[in-house]
Write a structure and sequence with these properties.
Elements lengths: L6 H11 L1 H23 L31 H6 L13 H15 L20 H14 L29 E4 L1 E2 L8 E2 L1 H13 L3 E2 L2 H8 L9 E8 L2 H14 L3 E5 L12 H9 L2 E5 L12 H19 L5 E3 L7 H9 L4 E7 L11 E5 L6 H9 L1
Parallel strand pairs: 1-5, 1-10, 2-3, 4-5, 5-6, 6-7, 8-9, 9-10
Helix pairs in contact: 4-5, 6-8, 10-11
Bound molecules: zinc ion.
Protein name: Polysaccharide deacetylase family protein
Main location: secreted
Keywords: Membrane, Signal, Transmembrane, Transmembrane helix
């Protein structure tokens, strides 16, 4: 006799008969639930297959638009202690991560810098996961142009140091007077015309401080620098040169010999002080305008240091720039200048002055008062 089939037995038989269907269904349910926290939490430790799924804190903007745990009932479940056993496998993790990358590529606005890349901190990182991380890094590198706030442009600061070495014409004048045939003199009219030319062409006659700053690369200086020097201290410099330079706002440097101040033909101290107040630098040219190489060391030292001391005491300035009388010097002269901390010394060697020259052998441009204006300007504009 055939026993009647009980409902439980029938159910068991059906279960066994369709066990593969039920197994597949069960697996689908498990996989579906396991993917949701990863989608909610974005690529973090869970994505890399760590068991510490519960350590993820909050969704990043990468996935938030697709899944918001604050409004989804599943969020409560995933925040419960039960979420920890449901770890993302190392197979699904990279797949989800790659998908996140594609999403961020499709919408760069979603890319933020809040995604930590901690793969480098984990020596046990799975190589397969590392490749997934590189996918994320690649897409995260796409600039979020449309989302980034406009950054105000930082105003460019002018360069303090020059981009190329200074080239400074140093003009060498002497007497400003009418003395036909004397190339070292120039008429007041021609001198005035030359100064006006410099003004019209935008030249800036320098102070010695400006000259020094340019030579040492401290300051770029004006676009068209020039240094006006006057040798010997002729009285006509006060009468003819100073008023013109004052009118144009020009600076100049006077190289004078204190031993000549009572001569009458040369400037006296009152005139020199007045010129200094008008913007002239006053510097030594020897006590008596000697041929230095003909003197012994003691006499050279006196000529150089006494001139320096008198100018500094009477004019109240620093006199550490020398000018060789007749352009003559020897090894003893250079040694004395160095021992007394002279910063520069001018010769009568012809050329534009540059920092590449020896500071104690600087070139100048002799102004021949007999020459035309064109020849004069050619010497420093060529
Ligand atoms: Zn001289």
């Amino acid at each position: 006799m055939k026993h009647p089939t009980l409902p439980a037995q029938a159910a068991l038989k059906a279960l066994l008969r369709h066990r593969w269907y039920f197994t597949v269904l069960f697996c689908l349910v498990v996989v579906s639930f396991s993917m949701l926290p990863a989608l909610a939490q974005a690529p973090d430790k869970a994505v890399f297959g760590h068991s510490s799924v519960g350590s993820v804190n909050k969704p990043t903007p990468l996935i938030a638009p697709l899944y918001n745990p604050d409004s989804d009932p599943f969020a409560l479940w995933f925040d419960s202690p039960f979420r920890s056993p449901i770890a993302i496998s190392s197979t699904t993790g990279p797949a989800i991560n790659a998908m996140s990358g594609l999403l961020s590529y499709a919408n760069p606005d979603m890319v933020t810098d809040s995604i930590p890349d901690d793969s480098a901190d984990r020596p046990d990182a799975d190589p397969a996961l590392a490749s997934a991380s590189s996918v994320r890094t690649h897409f995260s590198a796409i600039p979020a142009a449309s989302a980034a706030p406009a950054t105000p442009a930082i105003p460019a600061t002018p360069p303090v140091k020059p981009d190329k070495p200074a080239r400074i014409p140093v003009l060498n004048y002497h007497s400003i007077t009418v003395d036909p045939g004397n190339t070292a003199t120039i008429t007041p009219e021609k001198f005035a015309a030359q100064m006006q030319y410099l003004a019209d062409k935008g030249y800036t006659p320098l102070t010695l401080k400006q000259f020094s700053d340019m030579m040492e690369g401290i300051d770029k200086g004006p676009d068209k620098p020039i240094l006006l020097t006057f040798d010997d201290g002729y009285a006509d410099n006060y009468e003819h040169a100073m008023p013109i330079l004052k009118k144009l706002g020009f600076h100049a440097t006077l190289f004078m010999s204190p031993g000549t101040v009572e001569d009458g033909y040369f400037l006296n101290w009152d005139q020199i002080k007045e010129m200094h107040e008008a913007g002239w630098d006053i510097q030594p040219h020897g006590m008596t305008h000697p041929h230095l190489p003909t003197l012994n060391a003691k006499s050279q030292t006196f000529e150089i240091t006494e001139a320096k001391a008198q100018i500094e005491q009477i004019v109240g300035t620093t006199a550490d720039v020398y000018c060789y009388p007749y352009g003559e010097w020897d090894a003893t002269t250079l040694k004395i200048l160095k021992e007394h901390y002279f910063r520069y010394a001018f010769t009568i060697d012809q050329g534009i002055t540059t920092p590449s020259q020896d500071n104690l052998k600087l070139k100048r441009i002799f102004v021949n008062g007999e020459e035309s204006m064109d020849k004069w300007r050619y010497r420093f504009e060529k």
